[in-house]
Amino acid sequence: MYSQNQVGYPAIYLKPGRERSLSKGHPWVFSGAMAKIDPQLKSGDIAGIWTAEGKPLGLGFFHSSADIAFRLLTRDVHVRIDKDFWLDRLHHAISLRNQVIPPKTNAYRLINAEGDGFPGLVVDRYGEFLVVEVGTAGMEKQLQTILEILIQCLAPTGILERSESKSRHREGLPDRVQIHYGQISNEVVEILENGLSFRVNIMKGQKTGFFLDQRENRALVASLARGKNVLNCFSYTGAFSVYAIQGGAKKVVSVESSASANVLAKENFLQNAISPEMHPILEADVFEFLRNTDETFDVIILDPPAFAKSKNDLKKAVRGYKDINFYAGKRLAKGGWLFTFSCSNFVDEALFQSIVLSGLNDAKREAQLLARLGPGPDHPTLLGHPEGRYLKGLLVRVW
Widest CA span of the chain, in angstroms? Predict the structure, then answer.
C-alpha cells in the first residue's frame, strides 16, 4: 500500500491537487493536504512525499501532530539524508557568507533555517563561538550530526544551544539551553560589526544575543545621520545608536525599558569612544516616552520586539504598531526620516505598510516611501517561502 522512494524512506501521499504549493517552491505541506501516511512514521522522521497519482515530489521531515506536517529537504528522491548531505549544505552556507559578510565583521547568521536548506535550524556566529537554535522535531533528530559537521568545518571555541522558541513548543519539544562543545567561560563576548565593537550576552540576550539581521539597516542609518538629532526606540544594547553616532549624528537619545540591556548599551558606547552623557540612554517605556516628550527629532528608529507571537496576538499587535508609528509621526521634524520595523511573523509586509500609513495619517503627516527594508544577505529566504522573511521595515520621509 505504501511505496518507498529509491533509498527506502517511508511515503506520504497527498490529496489530489494538493501538490501545488510544493511545485511552486514553498517548502511546507500542512496536515490537511495529506491523504495517506505510512503508519511507521513518527514525528521528526524523514519521509518521501508523493502526489495522489504516485509522482515523487521530494524528501523531508514529517510531524504527526503539528499543522506543518512536512518540511521539504530536497526534491531529489534518490539521495540519502546523511552526514554527507548536511556537510554539502553547510559548505553552501559558508560559501555564501564568505561572499556577503563585510570586512571587519565577525558576527553573522551562518545558517538561516529553510533559507539555507536546514528547516528549523538557526546557527549564529559570534567570533569564535556558535549559538544554535533548534525549532523542529526533524532537526532535533539530526542535531548530533549537525554539531559534528560544525566542529569539523569551523573548529569553534564553543557551541551553545539556545532552543527556546514558540515554534519549538508547537513541535512538542521542551526548551533547552546547553553548552554542547568546548568552553564558554563568559556570558558576554565581544564582536566586530563593520569595524564597530559590541559586547553581546550570548547566554541571556534577546534571540541569540544580538539582532544580527539589522546589520545592513544600521549601516543605512549611519549613512543618513550626519548632523541630525536621532531617537532610537526599543534601543536594546544600543547598536543603532552607535552606528548613528559613528555616522556623525549631533545627538542620539536611546530609549529602552530593560535595565540590563541599558548597561550593555553604555558599555558599547564606551567601547566605541562615545560619551553616554552627550548621547543619553533612558530607561523608559517607549510608548510613554513618545506620548510625553516635547522634543522633535530628525530621525526616529522604531525596532520593537515582536508584538504578534501568535495569530491570537494579531489584533493587539496592529494596535501597538499603529500607536508607535502615530506617536513617532508626531515627534518627527518636517522632512524627518522614519525607520520602522516589525519582526512579527503574523504581520506581513502589506499589512505592516497599511498600519504605518494609518498611524501617520492619524498624526496628520504626509509620507514618502523611500525603501523597503529587511534582513541582510546572511539571512537568505527561499523565493517561494515569504514566511521566512520575518523582518520587514520601511524607510519613510515625512512632512
Answer: 73
What are the phi and psi torsion angles at 131 (to 5°)?
-120, 125
Distance CA 375, CA 381 (A): 10
Q: CB within 8 A of 291, min separation 6: which ones?
A: 327
Q: Which three cell numbers stand for residue 230?
A: 536621532
**Beta strands in the chain, from DSSP E residues, in sequence order:** 11-14, 28-30, 34-37, 46-50, 56-62, 68-74, 107-112, 121-126, 129-134, 158-163, 176-182, 188-193, 196-201, 229-233, 251-256, 281-283, 297-302, 332-342, 367-373, 392-398
316 neighbors 347 (Cβ within 8 angstroms)? no
For 129-184, what is each residue's pLDDT tens digit? 999 999 999 999 999 999 999 999 999 999 999 999 888 988 999 999 999 999 99
Q: What is the identity of the amino acid at 112?
A: N
Q: How many residues in the chain?
A: 399
Q: What domains appear along the chain, each with residue ranges and CATH number?
A: 11-74 (2.30.130.10), 83-189 (3.30.750.80), 211-398 (3.40.50.150)
Global confidence as pTM: 0.94
Q: Tell me the one-letter amino acid at 323.
A: D
Residues taking part in catalysis? 343
Reported as a pLDDT band with limits 50, 70 and 90, residue 7 is: low
Within a 10 A sphere around the Cβ of 164, how many other Cβ atoms? 14
The model's pLDDT over 327-381, given as tens digits with 9 standing for 90+, comes to 999 999 999 999 999 998 889 999 999 999 999 999 999 999 999 999 999 999 9
**CB-based contacts of 266-273 (< 8 A; 24+ apart in sequence):** 266/238, 267/199, 268/197, 268/198, 268/199, 268/237, 268/238, 268/239, 268/242, 269/238, 269/241, 269/242, 269/245, 271/190, 271/197, 271/198, 271/199, 272/196, 272/197, 272/242, 272/245, 272/246
- Burial of 311-329, coded b for 16+ CB within 10 Å and e otherwise, reads eebeeebbebbbbbbbbbb
Task: Say which residues have a Cβ less than 8 Å from residue 293's Cβ, sequence separation at least 6.
Answer: 331
